[in-house]
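Lecture notes, structural biology module. Today: joint structure prediction for complexes of two components.
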Amino acid sequence: MSTLEARVPVPPWMLPQVHAAHPPSPDDPSPLDIDTALVERWLVEFLRDEVRRRRGFEHVVVGLSGGVDSSLTAALCARALGSDAVHGFLLPYRTSSAQSREHALLVADALGIETRTIDITAAVDGYLERFEPEAGGHRLGNVAARTRMIVLFDQAFKLQGLPVGTGNKSERLLGYYTWHADDSPPINPLGDLFKTQVWALARAVGVPAEIVDKPATADLIRDQTDEGDLGISYPEADLILHHLLGGRSPERLAEAGFDPDRVRIVTDRLERTHWKRHLPTVAMLSATAIGEWYLRPVDY
Amino acid sequence: MTLDLGIAQFKPSKGDLDGTLASVVEMLARAGDGDPAPHMVVFPEAALTGYFLEGGVRERALSADELFERLSAGYAEAAERPVEVALGFYELDAGHVYNSALYARLGPDSTLVHVHRKVFLPTYGVFQEERFVESGAGLEAFDTAAGRAAILICEDAFHAISGTLAALDGAELILVLSASPARGATPGTGVPDNLARWDLIGSGLAAEHGVFVAVAQLVGFEGGKGFAGGSAAYSPRGERLVAGPLWEEAMIPVRLDLSEIRQARTEEPLFADLERSWTRLLVNSPGSGVGRPRPEAS
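The predicted structure, tokenised, for the full assembly:
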């Protein structure tokens, strides 16, 4: 049952007063607070409905990086569908850290889900070392991310399962992911949660503390961290993103005490990456162009 | 007099009109086995197809007469007990598509009683209704076996004028059919923020006019957008009488003691004040557009 009780006068505090109570302030992160029990159930029901009821799959495949996003995703999938329905894949490259593997196995063990390790080094190096030996870390990261998706989708086909994405709202808004790689699985439970909200939910559902508390990293390059790459911490970026998406201008945030340089880091990334949050741009030639005129929802 | 009402918190099979209609009939027939069995059952907005159809409304809309024929024929095969039902669907009429709800009597004396076409079409944020359906022209109450009622569909109920017009037309029971995508998880209430807002709307609508209000919410996910359930009913004093579960289909029974309407309206005669002042208010308030013209902007 919901927490709405019967036979009671409806109290005025039922209406969340987010805007009235929270004018923007860099010292007030409370607008990012979530009811973790509510969100956990919400996402469990989302996974049940979207995987089984709408798409008719019994199994899911999840790439386990040892980070908090994939650990939380696996935990939610296990709760929604049962441990036996979740297939975890460790997809290391030769530079991936040993700790990533330990953490991926730790969470899989805690959830009771089976795992398989498929080392992608030969596939990645088979292309890069032979044909593009000069490619730098950025290109290596993209090739590794896309190779992981090739493996994940192929394993999903083999297992008759559905790949589940693990990207969060912060990295989606900051464009901090590889296009048509991390974002390609057909469903994603975390994509509307900021990273700080992912941390809160992960703690609430019991993802081990060493995974939640370690610095976030794409683990594409040695000693890389998300926050080092971005030049801003997730708590700072998330709060700025929250207010920007809520319609507050960068000038308004500066007046409220946010560091204009920090705001600029966020707005620059946000505005440079709108394209990344869309499907490819198709030249429209007719009044039946798909997605422009011919409009049908994904589950129709 | 009492009315046993069933609020059908319902999960359609998206786009599968035949399968969903069969589920509606099955839920109605099963409700008849309940104790007490409801005299009236209210389903949510777009219950027949799911809410987010985009251009697909053209393919899934049907006339109120056709829906009534199919519904009454299906029910006749499944059950004999008379029941009245409100059901949301996309309506096709003379080439026009509406977001509508029918109210019908099923059983031996099967009759299509009323069709309401949603007036206020949300077209902002996640909502795109005005792209795909047309707006209803007006709002009127109708007679049920348990007195006079009116139907509002989702945003209709967000506008106080809708409840006012329904009450002035004699409605003592307002059925609100909703498909409200869940959003916001602010700590404190245990329900998505939109349901907390619905709680205020349902309670306020009931207390303002001294009427019963039943809010039937859709449940299930459509392309990532979750309908959380949380249907509810409110007394003429604005008390919440019953609350449905979150995320699950449910037939939520609630017994309405219709004598409470008189008691509430006597204790706090807001509705009598409205009846007395309504016409004078319209004529003398430039904002109504009825009587005195608006003053010219200087």
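Point to remember: The mean pLDDT of chain B is 95.
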